[in-house]
Amino acid sequence: MQIGFIGLGIMGRPMALNLLKGGHALTVWARRPASMQPLLDAGARAADSPVEAARGSDLVISMVADAPDVAEVMLGEHGVVHGAAPGLVAIDMSTILPAAARDIGAGLAAAGVDFLDAPVSGGEVGAIAGTLSIMVGGSAAAFATARPAFECMGRNIVHVGDSGAGQVAKAANQIVTGVGVLTVAEALNFAARNGVDPARVREALLGGFAYSKILENHGQRMLDRNFKPGFKSWMHQKDMNIVMQSAHALGLCLPASAAAAQMFNAMVGAGLGEEDSIAMLKLLERLSGGEA
Amino acid sequence: MRVGFVGLGAMGRPMALHLLRGGHALAVWSRRPESAQPLVDAGAMRCPTPAALAQWAEVVFSIVTTGADVEQVVFGPQGLAEGFSPGAVFVDMSTIAPATARDIAARLAARGVDMLDAPVSGGEAGAIAGTLAIMAGGEAAVLERVRPLLACFGPRIVHVGGQGAGQVAKACNQMVMVGCIEAVAEALHLARAAGADPARVREALAGGSAGSRVLEVFGGRMVERDFRAGVEARLHHKDYDILMQDACRSGVPLPVSAQVWQQLNALMALGGGRQDSAALLRVLEAASGASSRES
User: Fold this and answer.
1) Three-state secondary structure readout of B217-286
2) Which whole-number Å values give the CA distances from B262 to A248, A257, B169, in the listed order?
3) What residue segments make up the domains of chain B, in order of their start?
4) Has residue B292 got a pLDDT over 70?
5) Which fold would CATH assign to domain B2-162?
6) B267 with B197: CB under 8 angstroms?
């Protein structure tokens, strides 16, 4: 397939490389031309705007920071919508507000362009390995068209529902991981401050109902005190804000998410924003008069 | 001084009446013409558009619901901005995001119009009695020019700081007040569940360190189970969105406020948006299944 790819940051670069490896023809665009170079070296063609990336493509994929960026590359003055050939499927894989994804999808639909919201989970590691979880919202037909491209980038690929449903699933994912990181950090800190080896506690918990990937992977990195990202805590803060804004709009009570979101606020305020979200442990230690 | 007033709801109407009583020439505009009628009956001039009002007035006050409403009134078609002359003063008394207030002020400054953000606390009762607390942001000299007018609304006028500082103070005010409402609701809910008369408990608390205006006013409403608004809970809910977004942007943890926000979300889900925020008690009752008494 001919694929346009917009946004070549920590996540977008390896995802685009995996599309090339999968044998797809790729046209790339990034706000900073320097970030395109690794892709050009690998055989991609450079576009000078999102509209150029869309021209002649079967799929256009965006992986950018936030909703206004997605709206700009899809619907802006030099946006994808102006270069769309009939049958183009536009796909946004960024994490944004479900309501914003629906609006962008509606804007593209009005111009006859199919849209999928397809945020991912799995971080930089999953992006490089091509093992991302991909949660997709939009029409079944567009999903079928895009599936071969998704398979180059991820493993667990789920068509969740209509437009916006992928972002809803991602927000739910961030509730579980955001609250999960906080609870694992609390448990390990609790163990340590009670004079018990947190590594042994983690090991004991892994066999029971408290088992989770977060306990296994994030827990291990907490024990190793390896705070390199990974997934930066300011990005988790942004995602928790999406969760809380959606809850506000719908009148939903999310007490645990609300607590976790405040801890992420504190991490950013305390200068831990560029560290992995497991630096939550450091924050808890500070608040408990402990290490760090 | 020729004074204009935009937004004649539960707060704006009594405030505008105080300007008339203070002997000021008043022009009014309201989205729904019938809300202007009591003011017109009392001697105010009705303007067909915000632009016409701004053309006539030297100082314009507004008190509307959201930041988008303020932007619409100022910069929308036939908005105030089309009528303002350089040197005019615009005083927005709505509760909106500090960033929105700063943005509007900057855009008006480019046209030579001074702005103050001057949100109020005290509710409808304070507006009627002329006892509102006023928190002003903007230049001190501009505040001095309009201070005699603001004094019609209430005696406590505090210049908090530059543009947006009034809204920051208002956000803090809401945080403290609604947090207290939740605390009082929890206390009275516990009192009843544990077999004590909430009215007596409130009375006992009023004499000690837990005594507060919120315990008196909102606690009273809870004891009476009178949830008619006062200030509609949906407006506090809106305010929480503003302040929690500011907390997120600033990297500031507000653990208690975040929980109060969730209780307000739950109150919206219970259909309590048009009730008084004292109805936060109903959320607790719904959660614990204790006494689903009539609301």
Assistant:
1) HHHHHHHHCCCECCCEHHHHHHHHHHHHHHHHHHCCCCHHHHHHHHHHHHHHHCCCCCEEHHHHHHHHHH
2) 8, 10, 22
3) 2-162, 169-288
4) no
5) Rossmann fold (3.40.50)
6) no
Q: Look up the CATH superfamily of B169-288.
A: N-(1-d-carboxylethyl)-l-norvaline Dehydrogenase; domain 2 (1.10.1040.10)
A276: β partners: A232
| Arithmetic mean of pLDDT, A230-248 | 94
Q: What is the pLDDT of residue B1?
A: 87
Q: Which stretches of B76-136 are DSSP H helices?
A: 80-83, 98-109, 123-129
What percent of chain B lies above the pLDDT cut of 90?
92
pLDDT tens digits for range B1-46 = 899 999 999 999 999 999 999 999 999 999 998 999 999 999 999 9
Q: pLDDT (tens digit, 9 = 90+) per residue, A73-92?
A: 999 999 999 999 999 999 99
Q: How many helices (H) and strands (E) does chain A have?
A: 14, 9
Q: Which residue of B has its CA nearest to A239?
A: B248
Out of A251, A269, A273, whose CB is closest to B265?
A251
Which ipTM value was assigned to this complex?
Answer: 0.79
Angle at which helices B213-224 and B165-193 cross, to 10° = 50
Residue A103 reports pLDDT greater than 70: yes
> What is the C-alpha to C-alpha distance for residues B50 and B185, in angstroms, rounded to an integer?
42
Annotated catalytic residue A170? yes
Cβ neighbours around B127 below 10 Å, total: 25
Sorted by where each starts, the structural domains of chain A and their CATH numbers stand as 2-162 (3.40.50.720), 168-287 (1.10.1040.10)
* Mean pLDDT over the full length of chain B: 94
pTM of the model: 0.85
Residue of B nearest to A256 (CA): B259
Residues of A whose CB is below 8 A from B283: 253
